[in-house]
Specification:
lyase, ornithine decarboxylase activity, TIM Barrel, alpha/beta, pyridoxal phosphate, 22% strand, De-COase2_N, binds pyridoxal-5'-phosphate
């Protein structure tokens, strides 16, 4: 893959007509090493956030050995590129065929569930010639609040408190190893989210009186975006460690987490071209059906930088239209850019490694992109303490450098 020192060198060399994905493997490697070294347990990468094979290989090389997969497609993908990885099938609602293939063809032994029906499916699908599997690692997902997170994951999955004890007892009988899992919602803005969820774990263990071998605190670890400045990740890890140590579980119980966003948000950004300006609306060549789904659908604000040597000192607020013939291809922002931005300019949109590049479609014939690696720092980082706000979310080129 071609490499440039930074986005502005690429613009000078290529002046590309299609949107470009800028990859920073060094940022993903740094995030992975941080989790491997500092999280007080095992870190499973949530593949959903960005399934790119190059990223999977980067994370593996940095020490991430466990992968949270949610579909048979993700099972096959990770198994193909990382044959020695441990795969954990953490979607609580799976087809029996997917469970059977994962278990019998891909060596998956870890599954999550949040109902008796799912438990029965897993037991049936993993049996061999009528004999139940004796090597299952089963994690019961409990419902916890998403109140501290920017994106809720509280509605769809998770056993209710009234049904948890019964389900834990039944799952214990089918499992070689029993886990309890939860997800506090994505982009959790305070460690309190985990402390509160751990209280639910405690109540469930006490009520069910079962031996629990794994506590899986899920994903939700934040990244840095304009207007969203979370506390340091160490504060999350300390809270999780302390509350885990207080649980009524054995010394040999394992602590797991499933970070998606935190491992890959800084991995990729997007370079777009302005095709037209109408007042303070910029028509750019990627959008809601491309890598900017969250900017359009949940009004997520990403950091932006005008790729021009000089620009107006006056800053204005802009909204973006994507390239499709569709009014919904609209990103309200506001995105703060020099007031004289115009058609033909290039803009880097940062922090799109998680739930950005992974969401691309080819709707309306758009979606083509080329990947290049760049060596400079991402627009914001939780690992080097560069915050999107410190950079002002308003840039001309040249403020960042490789560190
Ligand atoms: C089961 C599960 N684990 C982990 C994640 C990753 O979450 P995050 O990207 O917020 O860390 C998700 C995301 O939806 C998920 O559904």
């Amino acid at each position: 893959m071609y490499s440039y020192p930074d986005a502005s060198s690429l613009v000078r060399a290529l002046r590309p007509d299609e949107p470009i994905t800028l990859l920073r493997p060094h940022a993903a490697e740094r995030a992975a090493r941080f989790f491997v070294e500092k999280f007080p347990g095992k870190s499973l990468y949530a593949v959903k956030a960005n399934p790119s094979p190059a990223l999977l290989e980067t994370l593996w090389a940095a020490g991430i050995t466990h992968y949270d997969v949610a579909s048979l497609g993700e099972v096959r993908l990770v198994h193909k590129f990382l044959p020695d990885a441990k795969l954990c099938f953490m979607h609580p609602v799976k087809s029996e065929r997917a469970i059977a293939q994962a278990y019998h063809n891909h060596g998956v032994r870890t599954f999550s569930l949040d109902s008796h029906e799912e438990l029965e499916k897993i037991v049936r699908a993993t049996a061999t010639d009528g004999t139940a599997a004796a090597d299952l690692e089963l994690c019961v997902r409990i419902r916890v609040s998403s109140d501290h997170a920017k994106l809720s994951l509280a509605a769809k999955f998770g056993a209710e408190p009234a049904e948890v004890a019964d389900l834990l007892v039944a799952t214990r009988q089918a499992a070689d190893s029993l886990g309890i899992a939860f997800h506090v919602g994505s982009q959790a803005m305070t460690p309190l989210a985990y402390a509160e969820a751990m209280e639910k774990v405690r109540a469930a263990i006490v009520e069910a009186s079962v031996t629990v071998d794994i506590v899986d605190v899920g994903g939700g670890f934040p990244s840095v975006y304009p207007g969203m400045e979370p506390p340091p990740l160490e504060a999350y890890f300390e809270t999780i460690h302390r509350t885990f140590e207080d649980l009524p579980i054995s010394y040999s119980a394992e602590l797991w987490c499933e970070p998606g966003r935190a491992l890959c948000a800084e991995y990729a950004s997007l370079l777009v071209k302005v095709e037209k300006r109408r007042d303070n609306e910029l028509y750019i060549n990627d959008g809601a059906y491309g890598a900017l789904f969250d900017a359009a659908h949940v009004s997520w604000r990403f950091p932006v930088e005008l790729m021009r040597e000089s620009g107006s000192d006056e800053i204005s607020e802009f909204a973006f239209y994507g390239p499709t013939c569709d009014d919904m291809d609209y990103m309200a922002g506001p995105f703060l850019l020099p007031a004289d931005v115009k058609a033909g300019d290039y803009i880097e949109i940062g922090m799109l490694g998680a739930y950005g590049c992974a969401m691309r479609t080819e709707f309306n014939g758009f979606g083509e992109t080329e990947d290049f690696t760049v060596e400079d720092e991402p627009m914001a980082s939780l690992y080097t303490r560069i915050a999107a706000n410190d950079l002002g979310n308003v840039h001309h080129i040249g403020k960042r450098s490789a560190q």
